[in-house]
Yip1 domain-containing protein (Polyangium spumosum), 199 residues
Amino acid sequence: MTAPRPAWSLFLDVLRGPRAAMAGVAARADAREGRSVMLVLGATHGLFSLLLYLSGHAPRFGLPGLDPGRHYLFQALFAVPLYLVLFWIGGGVAHALARRLSASGGAGSRGASLAVFGVSYAAPMMLLFLLPDIVVHLAFGFSAIGKAMRYYAPLAAIGCLILGTMGLSRAHHLPTRTALLSAFVGFLTQAVVGALFLR
């Protein structure tokens, strides 16, 4: 088995040419690529959460039973494993649905689906959501994040769907509509789980 492309290279691939990047991810079908970019996303989110905690910030709504003032500390500690869980859940759901909805039973492997899910989730979330959050916080303060994300959060979600559709359609030889539905349900499933913990 050939070595997977490193996470930094996958992010750059998406920036240079999203369609070619996702075609490559689908063709290599290496779940380690999806996992590596999710690890980078989780680590970055964890470090940002630690910065928020050390700066004395707290979310409006934390985890039930947990002091809101300690939520970002909890998030910093568990961001990486949580993102791995979201990777397996979302990628697994997208894979199962792609195979079920395909007339041929879905041509792609589980590894291809996981690779596609990880890259199509992590790249937009890193580039269009988390990094803008960090920039807004550093430039304008914590209170500005909620207002600013109304503009870039939808772009991140759309980016995830576009990349996921591109990748799943290639991995499973699916029509665009079927790939879009599979990607959407996978992303929605992980979002429901993630929303319980991430702020």
